[in-house]
Amino acid sequence: xxxxxxPNLSKENIVRYVDELCRHLDAADIDYRxxxxxxxxxxxxxxxxxxxxxxxxxxxxxxxxMAISLGGxxxxxxxxxxxxxxxxxxxxxxxxxxGFLNVIERNTLDERLQKIKSGAYHLVERTxxxxxxLTREGEKNQLPMxxxxxxxxxxxxxxxxxxxxxxxxxxxxxxxxxxxxxxxATGSTGYALSCGGPILYPGLDSLLVIPVCPHLLQSAPLLxxxxxxxxxxxxxxxxxxYASIDGNESFHFNYGRRLMIRAHEQTIPFVQFNDQNFFQxxxxxxxxxxxxxxx
Length: 295
Hints:
By secondary structure, the protein is α/β, with parallel strands linked by helices. The chain has seven helices and 18 strands. The longest helix has 14 residues, at about 15-25.
């Protein structure tokens, strides 16, 4: 078995964490490689892999059986996007505050790697979003895939926008709101949750449509199926809106253009251990104060 290691190099002490992971992988007799794009920075930090432990991107994609993300949930999402749509399973070692997506804690590395070695895990197929901006002339400008959500609104936070929502080409509502979130089950524990959305089990392929701070008396979140297509337009007075992909990349579209969002035809396989329960691990993290250690 060969795993690829994908560390978040911006994390403090990441060299120590990479070394720790490699020692546990050696103990579990699991072969590993690291993407050679990290080599220069790791060398600068004084960490020197043996030459055969580095691999090109093509070699990694061709040979690795699993990708291990080393960081927080943001790191895991970034790695998932990089390896999509190769169908390589991904698992995360949590170095963040909460780690809703990362199923391995540092103090369980020995146990979890042995379970990976023995196959005591299953794969959860997580839905991702396919988004595109459509012009009046019928041209399609493809946007990057989203793991968590697509958020539509103004470029300045707190500035109300007017957004028209269509589902399967049927007009639903015009929302005067800070924005609209279209989220996957994976994204249901993120921004969508803080805006009053429900928590969806990771394996569900449903999508959430949630208005953000709407100026309406009735504005319930909507739950739709993976076969449904969401369209966002704007009235003429709005002129321009922005689509944010997983909070990292932003794209604008003008009046007369439409933003189309639907479930991507492919999914991403995430590792889930057989002895883990999603809700049993979720709620303690939701109730945990990330500021507790600073009080």
